[in-house]
Write a structure and sequence with these properties.
With 410 residues, the protein is an alpha/beta fold. It is built from 7 helices and 24 strands. An 8-stranded mixed beta sheet has the order 8-7-5-3-2-1-23-24, with helices on one face. Strand 14, helix 5 and strand 15 form a beta-alpha-beta unit.
Length: 410
């Protein structure tokens, strides 16, 4: 059973759809068997490359119109139309859930889709969106959202704790492609899991730190190839290096997320310096890095996806790890794109880089005729900021045969 992971452009935020289908189906037009949505939120929207026909408004309106149209297209093409096998809300940061009411509700304020299972972490009252009640209703009283057409949340929402064993979300039959839940709430043990190893210390975590450390982590597992190995996609939410250290400890004994065949890493916390630590790159040895980010600036500083962290640390470490393990550069099926990050010294600028390096960012190609090849790998003028656009990245596993992959952007 092949699967397509669609990493949607939501600017600074996260939204990933996993769409499963049978062998021989064209995923662009054919029927799917299962669908799982992981997060749906934004802060600092980026306009899409190709807004839907007739869509109008600012960057946020165009982005939401594009997202709604794309999700509807995929969910209408299921064997059981307009049904999510699972909705996963990784943690209570608004850029991971605040678009849910815009894409899940119909014009009457009721659910436009059926949700078989819903998973989240921490207290449901931590999920607040602009003073509205949708998230409270969704997590604590979902029956109020049932539509006249019968679309509803079928099972009571589940607040996840760390799993002692991975929880398969599609079927107990783990011989096929599946999504495995590893849980959240990886904090509060009084141990600092730093990059030099664990040490015990009294810890006072902030609310945001607790939310990030509690982020639900999932592993998309593909079909077994002829050698019995699987491709994997690690979906990290906003998990940070403390989480990564704990997961490495589990994985050394259980092989929940280690490399078997190709391994793809959805970077935690939007590619910030608090996540994707060097030890995590060495442990996972990814073929490609996917990151959901935009141009939102925090307190006048740069975004989470910065030149200092990506160009200065992540890429050199990853290049060394790939070389040591004989991992080739990933192949982009469609033409190579350009992605951007911001120089730490001057967040008003944007640094343009080619995806041939294997980093796939939703903060992608500009909407005008630049940059030219000579302008790559250097900061671009601040006046060009508004020309940048967002792209959806598509990663298809085991299509057309087990063990294969393709990557393209829209």
């Amino acid at each position: 059973m092949p699967v397509e992971a669609i990493f949607f452009n939501v600017g600074q935020g996260d939204c990933t759809l996993l769409w499963f289908y049978d062998r021989g189906v064209d995923p662009a037009t054919g029927k799917g068997t299962h669908a799982i949505l992981i997060d749906c939120g934004s802060s600092g929207a980026v306009a899409p490359m190709t807004p839907p026909t007739g869509a109008k408004g600012n960057a946020s309106a165009l982005m939401v119109a594009h997202l709604k149209a794309k999700l509807a297209n995929y969910l209408e093409r299921l064997d059981n139309p307009r049904t999510l096998d699972a909705l996963i809300i990784t943690h209570p940061d608004k850029d991971h859930f605040n678009l849910l009411h815009k894409v899940l509700l119909d014009a009457t304020g009721k659910l436009a889709y059926t949700i078989k299972a819903l998973y989240y972490t921490l207290d449901p009252m931590e999920y607040r969106e602009g003073g509205g009640t949708f998230m409270k209703d969704l997590l604590t009283d979902p029956d109020t959202l049932t539509s006249p057409a019968g679309h509803k949340v079928e099972e009571r929402p589940i607040a996840m704790d760390p799993q002692t064993e991975p929880l398969p979300l599609l079927s107990r039959d783990t011989s096929r492609a599946n999504l495995l839940m590893l849980g959240g709430s990886w904090y509060g043990d009084g141990v600092i899991h730093g990059r030099k190893g664990p040490k015990r210390k009294r810890v006072e975590y902030t609310k945001e730190e607790i939310a990030n450390q509690s982020s639900l982590v999932t592993v998309l597992q593909g079909e077994r190839d002829s050698g019995g190995k699987r491709q994997r996609v690690l979906l990290m939410g906003d998990a940070v290096d403390i989480t990564e250290m704990l997961l490495m400890g589990f994985d050394k004994k259980k092989d929940w997320m280690g490399r078997q065949s190709n391994l793809w890493l959805k970077m935690g916390h939007h590619g910030s310096a608090t996540s994707t630590c060097d030890e995590w790159i060495e442990h996972t040895t990814p073929d490609g890095l996917f990151v959901s980010t935009g141009m939102l600036q925090f307190s006048g500083a740069s975004t989470t996806f910065t030149e200092a962290n990506i160009r200065g640390r992540v890429l050199p470490t990853w290049k060394r790890v790939r070389g040591a393990n004989g991992i080739a550069d990933p192949v982009v099926t469609a033409r190579s794109r350009i992605y951007g990050y911001q120089p730490t010294a001057d967040p008003k600028q944007i640094w343009a880089v080619s995806t041939t390096q294997g980093v796939f960012s939703n903060f992608c190609e500009p909407g005008m005729a630049f940059p030219q090849p000579a302008e790559l790998d250097k900061p671009l003028l601040a006046g060009n900021r508004d020309a940048w656009r967002g792209a959806d990245w598509h990663l298809r596993l085991d299509h057309p045969t087990d063990g294969t992959y393709s990557i393209h952007a829209e």
